[in-house]
Structure prediction request, 69 residues.
Amino acid sequence: MHKKGDRVKVRSDLKADTRYDGIYCHAGMLKHSGKKATIVCTQEHRGRADVFYIDIDTEGYYWSSSMFE
Prediction:
């Protein structure tokens, strides 16, 4: 499982309007496809999957671990 401070790479094959581990992928997230990022914060989402915030995302989208390579 990922944790704060981990370096990750956003999947280059992300698809908008798709759920990854139950987390919705918004079209605005696609601009980060293929880029490296650092996890800056984690939190539990609705009592199940962890969600992540990454440093390159200034919009504050939720990211799931299956959105990373």
Summary: The chain has one domain: 7-67. Residues 7-67 form one domain.
